[in-house]
Amino acid sequence: MRRRLTSLLVLATAAALIPLGSGTASAIGTADPCAPYAAPAPAARAERAPLPPDAAAFMAAYEAWGDQPTVEAYMQLFTPDGTLMDTGLAAPIGAAAICAQMKSLLKEVPNYTFEPLPGTVSSQDGRVVYVKARNTGTVTIPDQSGGPGGVKQVPFDYITTHRLVLDGSKVEQGRRFWDQTELFRAMAPALPKLFANLTPVPPAQPRTNDRLTAWNTRDSAALVAGVDDLAQLTGPGLDAPLVNRQDARAYLERFFTRAHSLNLTPGHTVRQGNVAYREWVGRAVVGPENRDITYGITERFTRNAAGAVEWDLAFETLDMVATQCEIAELRALLFPPSGPTQPCTPPAAGQ
């Protein structure tokens, strides 16, 4: 029997390396379908860096929502026509879809938590904000091992990076960068581990000093060489930071074995203090079926107390390790289809 969940719409989302230091400064639906809501006054967070007034007001509301998530409070984070672009979507969604997702999430995962992490930065005018956050909760799925009640509780824990364009203190355009594999592996432990058993990569000369060209031409040597004073690299699929350039290149080369025909363009760049973010958005051909999908990458560069740079990447790998049919089966655990579906492989005898 196919494993199914009751409805849940969880997922609920200059080309050289910039120096660390200023900032620069994008739409989602129709009228807000949720009832008006007055967000509670949030407590100040000591770890948050000073932000311009609009960005600070937004982050206060965002953190208050993370402490006590409700549908109404979430919708109050957006302008009436605000949009959200998420990993796995073909195009941004508007207010009705955003509201429906959050209703389903909070219904199916009542212990869901959202915790913005230290390092939030904004452009100097407060219009563009980058937020990194931890998402945790527990979902109930069918238990094929014959456990009590035929279901089991599965905890999830994954990290998201949010690029938000504000109108005043509300989101006009949001985009979320994260690895769906981090969520679905909790429900499907057999998902391939793209970055397991990395092997050393021989030294190579960069073919470009332009970072956009380096991503689009899959030039790992240029990407690594472009990070001055590299101390460590963190990113999807890594259990621990990579602390030398050879390993960083090996990680990127493994990524490029599953990401082809990258056609990215620069998004929003923000620099504040010792933190800088870069966004690259467009399309890529990925995975075992070489599918053309919307794709995005963010890079965060943080100069630590020792003066070295910590490089953090956010991108999605589920489309790289699973076929379209397998992804549909995984999504059916969270987004049950309205009609019957066919399994990717024939069921074993006796099932």
List keywords for this structure.
351 residues; 12 strands; 29% strand; globular; disordered C terminus
Protein described:
This protein has nine helices and twelve strands. The chain is an alpha+beta fold and 351 residues long. Strands 1, 2, 3, 4, 5 and 6 form a six-stranded mixed β-sheet that branches. Strands 7, 8, 9, 10, 11 and 12 form a six-stranded mixed β-sheet that branches. β3 (121-122) and β4 form a beta hairpin. The longest helix has 15 residues, at 53-67. The radius of gyration is 21 Å and the shape is globular. It starts with 52 loop residues before the first helix and ends in a 17-residue tail after the last helix.
Q: What's the average pLDDT?
A: 83
The global form is globular
Query: Could you give the count of β-strands?
Result: 12
SSE ordering: HHEHEEEEEHHHEHEEEEEHH
Task: Give the topology, please.
Blueprint: H1 53-67, H2 71-75, E1 78-85, H3 95-108, E2 113-116, E3 121-122, E4 128-142, E5 151-167, E6 170-178, H4 180-184, H5 211-216, H6 220-225, E7 230-234, H7 245-258, E8 259-266, E9 270-272, E10 275-286, E11 291-303, E12 309-314, H8 318-321, H9 324-334
Parallel strand pairs: 1-6, 7-12
Antiparallel strand pairs: 2-4, 3-4, 4-5, 5-6, 8-10, 9-10, 10-11, 11-12
